[in-house]
Specification:
It contains six helices and three strands, in the order H-H-E-H-H-E-E-H-H. By secondary structure, it is mainly alpha-helical. Strand 2 (86-91) and strand 3 form a beta hairpin.
């Protein structure tokens, strides 16, 4: 790996600070939305992941995809089952395997959530010029491509890329 220059280090620090701020803002929107619906942000991400799957998933699949400990995921799934957002059942091909999927109530909740956050971000973008929106999109694309190139150098791929 090439030794970074002081300018590159400074740019990396500014980029990381910007990513941290953006992450904090999006998380804040999800926290408010989750509080309104009586679930945690982590629960919202679990529900969203289950919604994206075309078939029921195992606890291990959910935990691995979201980079969460299995024990934490198990407790979260229990809470979501009790709240009526998730259904748990046996795999018909292997009765020892427990499969997890969204309930109809869970599907309704997920359909409302991201749309609300997306609408808030869209409202913010509506007050920006087309050029600024393209710059934001292109900057994120370039950042993700660069991160994809360096993923795994430390032996730990970034969860969003894997």
């Amino acid at each position: 790996m090439t030794e970074p220059t002081p300018e590159a280090i400074s740019a990396a620090e500014r980029i990381l600070a910007g990513v941290k701020r953006a992450n904090h803002a999006v998380h804040a929107m999800f926290r408010r939305l989750s509080a309104e619906r009586g679930i945690s942000v982590r629960h919202a991400f679990i529900l969203r992941h289950l919604a994206r799957s075309n078939e029921p998933l195992t606890l291990n699949e959910v935990a691995e995809k979201l980079d969460l400990p299995k024990s934490t995921t198990s407790v979260d799934i229990d809470r979501l089952v009790k709240a009526g957002y998730v259904l748990r059942g046996q795999d018909p091909r292997c009765r020892r395997r427990i499969m997890i999927q969204l309930s109809p109530e869970g599907r309704m909740l997920v359909a409302e959530g991201p749309a609300t956050v997306t609408a808030k971000i869209a409202a913010g973008l509506a007050s920006s010029s087309d050029e600024d929106v393209r710059d934001i999109e292109n900057g994120l694309i370039k950042l993700n491509k660069m991160l994809d190139r360096i993923v795994g150098e430390d032996g730990h791929p970034h969860p969003a890329c894997g």
